[in-house]
Amino acid sequence: MGAAERRSVLEAIKRFTIETPSWGYGDSGTRFKVFHWPGAARNLREKLADAALVHRLTGVCPRVAIHIPWDKEDDWEAVKAYAAGLGVRIGAVNPNLFQDEEYRFGSLCHPDPAVRRRAVQHVLECIQIARAVDSDTISLWLADGTNYPGQDDLRARKHRLEETLAEIYAALAPGMRLLIEYKFFEPAFYHTDLADWGMAYTLARKLGPQARVLVDTGHHPQGTNLAHIVAFLLDEEILGGFHFNDRRYADDDLIVGSQHPFELFLVFNELVAAASQPQAPRIDYMIDQSHNIEPKIEAMIQSVLHIQSAYARALLVDRQRLSQAQAAGDVLGAYRVLRDAFETDVRPLLAQAREEMGLDPDPIAAFRRSGYADEVARTRPASRSGASGYPGA
Amino acid sequence: MGAAERRSVLEAIKRFTIETPSWGYGDSGTRFKVFHWPGAARNLREKLADAALVHRLTGVCPRVAIHIPWDKEDDWEAVKAYAAGLGVRIGAVNPNLFQDEEYRFGSLCHPDPAVRRRAVQHVLECIQIARAVDSDTISLWLADGTNYPGQDDLRARKHRLEETLAEIYAALAPGMRLLIEYKFFEPAFYHTDLADWGMAYTLARKLGPQARVLVDTGHHPQGTNLAHIVAFLLDEEILGGFHFNDRRYADDDLIVGSQHPFELFLVFNELVAAASQPQAPRIDYMIDQSHNIEPKIEAMIQSVLHIQSAYARALLVDRQRLSQAQAAGDVLGAYRVLRDAFETDVRPLLAQAREEMGLDPDPIAAFRRSGYADEVARTRPASRSGASGYPGA
Amino acid sequence: MGAAERRSVLEAIKRFTIETPSWGYGDSGTRFKVFHWPGAARNLREKLADAALVHRLTGVCPRVAIHIPWDKEDDWEAVKAYAAGLGVRIGAVNPNLFQDEEYRFGSLCHPDPAVRRRAVQHVLECIQIARAVDSDTISLWLADGTNYPGQDDLRARKHRLEETLAEIYAALAPGMRLLIEYKFFEPAFYHTDLADWGMAYTLARKLGPQARVLVDTGHHPQGTNLAHIVAFLLDEEILGGFHFNDRRYADDDLIVGSQHPFELFLVFNELVAAASQPQAPRIDYMIDQSHNIEPKIEAMIQSVLHIQSAYARALLVDRQRLSQAQAAGDVLGAYRVLRDAFETDVRPLLAQAREEMGLDPDPIAAFRRSGYADEVARTRPASRSGASGYPGA
Amino acid sequence: MGAAERRSVLEAIKRFTIETPSWGYGDSGTRFKVFHWPGAARNLREKLADAALVHRLTGVCPRVAIHIPWDKEDDWEAVKAYAAGLGVRIGAVNPNLFQDEEYRFGSLCHPDPAVRRRAVQHVLECIQIARAVDSDTISLWLADGTNYPGQDDLRARKHRLEETLAEIYAALAPGMRLLIEYKFFEPAFYHTDLADWGMAYTLARKLGPQARVLVDTGHHPQGTNLAHIVAFLLDEEILGGFHFNDRRYADDDLIVGSQHPFELFLVFNELVAAASQPQAPRIDYMIDQSHNIEPKIEAMIQSVLHIQSAYARALLVDRQRLSQAQAAGDVLGAYRVLRDAFETDVRPLLAQAREEMGLDPDPIAAFRRSGYADEVARTRPASRSGASGYPGA
């Protein structure tokens, strides 16, 4: 790698930002148990404080996604100011369409128009909140689905969803993006109304250019080639962003890149390749994880490091050599171009980028030294017990 | 089917009993939400009352599995008397090794001897409870595992498990059975200490003849041939029982037979074939489900009907014709022997068996007519809100 | 079921036709071995003769799909006349884009324009053959994909595919349909260029109204809800047809309905529900199986019986009662409407339909009695040995 | 890493040997097509020549596994001498129990005693061949299974297998090892007689100490934690060896480590941890792949590099620091110990080891420079066409 190329890689690393989720700083768990972590954030202010620390340590996490109503506050101007004071700002606003008693059989797809109305109103409220906090992104995950064959009419549910989404889309502010997430299963176990990228794509296309597909890396059947889906959506110019996490089995919501680092690299390989095109699309890189047994803040920093590691390696791919090998039908030669980049130890490169940004080259070590964990463990008593798997439950 | 054979099938159906789980009568849910069902049982007495109703309606559910500490009471003699008054008795006692804060990193496999001690003590207490309620079965599910590579030493955990299980085994009352369950994943997401039947089998063999393997039908990787595992364990004379439920994706805990009725039939086909042998082993047939959106009691009756339906069809298999076709290498002829039994509508047969038992031929209709659902909805106000996925959480 | 309803069901069963594949009558196998079946058809004439027998026995299989070049002949007029003499006609024409040495790295997506040209020419030839045999259907399965990350540029391959498909589409005769199949994996093992329904859908939409999506029931990840995909494609008015088969693991190409009969019923439940709409689309029901160890003709008849069984049960679903239960949020009541239809033994109904058509009520028994199997075993000596998994190899 | 530690790692790398398979040097493919590779080896002599080249280039592949009858020769003394002259020797002898017409319904589990006899005789012949070539290893993969429910009696098949294996075991030479492989599915699609490690383990235990379990890395359900199974078998002192390959979907038989390099590292992490014990067991590291589209020899060298890369990283794990973090319940700290080793670029280390062995530091480059590929492409005309997926077919 020549000096100019190294410089270019360093600058790209420094420019690349990641959005962290407010809910990743609080306690969460499985259906069996929520283990409390000493000092876990209990409200939006504490979550923003933790997120701001992650940003100070990594330099690349200026935005924090919020979840309504978990993070709901009365005075959004005050929230904005508070966040700004910490050096961060609000990113995507995530409606919650799964925790009301009314949502037993769904929200936007529910058979009862009154429940659909309630769900639409909630998303409209989130759009208002987004406006209030200067966010331009609504990130929509639908827990809708059924548990038994025949429980509801699958096509009727699709029609209801098309209607309610159209109403939501119409209410978007100009320039605001609606990111539509899909998920293979859970919490519904027979069918999920938006089960795969094809369904999210079809609905986004019908809605219009402000609608985009959101890829959650843990929401696919086993074996799915994620890099291929990303390449396809990029080529269709409809990829809006990511919810990053990792898994071995189902939607395990583990630290991104902790189980399949090569897969994460291959996803970034597609993103970097597409980014070199003239009209590279805006992609939002967001973490969405459930830190069940890990220290929350450290888990978040670790996630950022994994993403940066995958991105840096993807930047190192020798694309000219790759194209030549591909054109020559040199299967293993082409593979080795990727593999070479993956084998490279990019920790020195990332450390240099951080130092150039005035940061500690090792954010985990800096965090451990900071005393922050002990302090919040002392100053934030556990707010509840017997809690369920998700913060708002 | 001749009259003698029909009589034999009817008598087998009438003799075949199913154990229902106390926790299946209470509210439960996913990590995202527990939806409250009006009238859901809130304590052991109510659960026993509901279970007794299921037994009165179906005639085949005389035992109720309990979960400690969810169902813990001070006076077990009183519980026994109460159950007996309702016409049921306590079945398997299920320890809970996943809901204490101490169990963040496991219970019987935990790195800390003090936590392992706590876990062993809890199981020993369950053995005492089993004695007190005249139960001869401890049903052990271990939620132990890790979420990240390296988190703990896999072989050290195995050693700890062998030690703690040996201590538990030594404390079993004479004739008491220890049923060892395995699970592919969840709530641990990197590895599960008892991940498959082979691990449960290996440990049960080391412990001795009172240890048996428990098959939970939802705890396997996709595609796994359950009937084959059952046949293998039967042949090894180490199958102890079942936790019945169904799933499409992960461990969905849906109503047994609701997603893959043919698979359930194939499992029973192996059980019926093996039962004709001179020394047929004791197998405990237990339901273990999580009724997230369904009415609890109706879901339990439906489950019983599905099991009876699978069992009745398996009884109809013409085993002589099957053997002949198998010996002749008649692949499709042999397959059709099973298929013929499966295609048969066994509802009239089951209705006749119920009538011979003095029951309503349609337990669901009888339940709906009974007014019980309305009554408990009125008399059992919701005991909690914002609850998590599992009753004790 | 009233008499009028029963009559309506019987007439529907008699009208419902299934296309059988020429390749299902010949030897096929796995990568490990092709077992020769005595009397297996060795050329198009013999395949048509066998298919005609299946039609004579079942009354519902008037069309035979062909595969080019496996079934290539010089005089298509003669083929047409021969088929007509047997009482059948040619159905879908299936190009072969995977068995030329040139296709090592793909066909329509190959990096080399010359190979793409060759592939396009082959499909254009198939369009000519379709015209010659009065078929209006091209059924396109693409084996294209890669085995290693980096082997080729995923987006470039998509562009090539869009180009070559556009050229093919432009050459379709008026009213001719291009059915685009997708497959999760195999024979490519890193990525498949048309990996899921979403990719087939996207390309079909771009091509125009003569392009439709073909669902092969064995080409999905584990757990996939097939009925949901079918409902979605029906609602989008882009479902063109099926390749029926069954599997437990990968694309096992076993007899349709032999592993998951309930799933097949649920697919037909969606089809029957949609068929009651004013503008029901044309759907081609085709079998696509690999009979590795089974007698070929008997396997085909068995497949037809399974499809009819699933279809008949779907016709029995009480849709009014279903809608009412769904509207009432009666999860288990709605489920039982489907389950009741599934539990019904439809063999008498199918036997009656056959008798009304002048057929033997038991086509398998009639086939076994006919002596046809012995005759072809005698008159058709094995044409080759050491053959590979697919007929043309 | 200190100098002493580095030295120790280098010596371990130099000592670590890998067995390559004769069949990996010939043409192979899928059920759809075998693509011929110019110069692919056509017989045992050519395979040994290619394997010897791989050994000369890598320095760590002194043994070549053979497959009977694919590699059968009349004069095994001559084969031994020929191999010795090339600097290699014969490793495991692999019987073939899947390519005779008689094996349609199985081999060692076949319902017909005459077929079982044939299969046993073949394995006994392989034992004789092993003696003749001074090999002490029989590597047994069983393709036995069924395609349809009911096709055969699952327990009867188990009994037959126990009988035939006992006969084989009794015929082993003293010190000879019988490695028993298992496979989730394929070529059987309903059930596989040895479907998982638990079945292989159970039978190996019954046979005696010369029987060991062979882990083929591609023979597991999706999501399976391979490192855990390896740790369990190591702890049970019954792991005999590996068949290395990689896959995304089914048993894809791709280059080991090419899809999931982190998983391969985690497997080696368990092996290295166990190797430090006093009585480290003998483990045979063997490659078993199907090079469908790749250049055969280059694919084999690439495989060796991947294995060495995973092994080297596992050697770098700081086991003291790991234990400390594990004991402290420091989930992410422990994880990072593994991750740090994995992030390390071990190419320089491997290059140094090769140079110390007098080899080119880059075996792929050396191979490409050697002209060997061109030469064999010229001197080895294709021996057959229209071939099937496996060399002997």
TrEMBL record, chains A, B, C, D:
Gene Ontology MF term list: L-rhamnose isomerase activity; metal ion binding
Entries under Pfam families matching the protein: AP_endonuc_2 (PF01261)
Disordered: annotated segments: 374-393
Location of the Xylose isomerase-like TIM barrel domain: 67-253
Highest taxon of source: Bacteria
TM region(s), chain numbering: none
UniProt keyword Nucleotide-binding present: no
Alphabetized UniProt keyword annotations: Isomerase, Manganese, Metal-binding
Gene Ontology biological-process annotations: L-lyxose metabolic process; rhamnose catabolic process
NCBIfam families tied to this protein: RhaI_grampos
Name of the featured protein: L-rhamnose isomerase
Lineage summary: Bacteria, Bacillati, Chloroflexota, Ktedonobacteria, Thermogemmatisporales
